[in-house]
Amino acid sequence: MSATMESEAWLAGRAGRETWPEIQGMMEVGRMLHGRGWSLATSSNYSVRLSQDPFRLLLTKSGMDKGRLTPADFVVVDEHGRPLPGEPRPSAETMLHVVAAQRSSIGAVLHTHSVWGTLLSDVYHSLGHVRLHGYEMIKALDGVSTHDHELEIPIYENTQDIGSLAEEIAERFEDDTKPKMHGFLIRRHGLYTWGRDLDEARRHVEGFEFLLEVAGRALTLRSALPAGLVAPPVSL
After folding, report:
1. Burial class (CB in 10 A: 0-12, 13-18, 19+), 136
2. Is 165 domain-assigned?
3. CA distances in angstroms from 127 to 112, 124, 166, listed in the order given
4. I need a surface site. Which of 108, 126, 158, 227 has the fewest CB within 10 A?
């Protein structure tokens, strides 16, 4: 069977798209993230892995208002980020989702465009990361059991060459010499994070966005605090 025929057969076996729980889940997440101000205008994109073999990823279509998603606003892509036959155009950042979701431990990926994520990704870009510790909310991240955990959020330069960026991020996933990566920032752009499923990815977004706002507000406090008081920790 050709790849095209295989893809068509796979889609035929998943009829009734409007009832897919993955779509219903992402519609709900979109409303929440839009309502929090983290996915405004037509920014952001979300994905859920439908199957590992063959690899099939359900992704938001390009240019959709995430607060008003409908079942028609999603596309299924393969391991190369290509839409299956008859599917609409996916997000330009599809391969960033693919390289994450190809890992067996990742079943959903969420990308936001919050004010604090955008600002801090620029402020800390020269360091290559935002580093946080001491905050209870860090324990919202999978596998973190203490507030003393030192969280490092890598920052990548914004680029239209998504293929090269995807390769760079794939290499980071495989680099065992660096701390486990729970998410990353793209400069002047936003946050990517993920989870075993959509619920965990959503929890990670909420945790990260809280921490990024704390980090941003800590920077503004440093110049306004009375003598003798110490601003919350944001490591360099």
Report:
1. exposed
2. yes
3. 22, 5, 20
4. 227
pLDDT at res. 6: 61
Task: Report if residue 121 sits inside a domain.
Answer: yes
Mean per-residue pLDDT of the chain: 91
Say if residue 231's pLDDT is above 80. no
CATH number at residue 95: 3.40.225.10
Residue 228 lies in a domain: no
Strands of the sheet containing 108-112, edge to edge, are 74-77, 55-60, 45-52, 108-112, 190-195, 183-186, 151-156, 129-132
| Residue 108, phi then psi, degrees to nearest 5 | -150, 145
pTM over 0.70: yes
Look at residue 18 in the predicted model and tell me its pLDDT.
86
Greater confidence (140 vs 14) lies with 140
Range of the domain at 201: 3-222
> Does 231 fall in a domain?
no
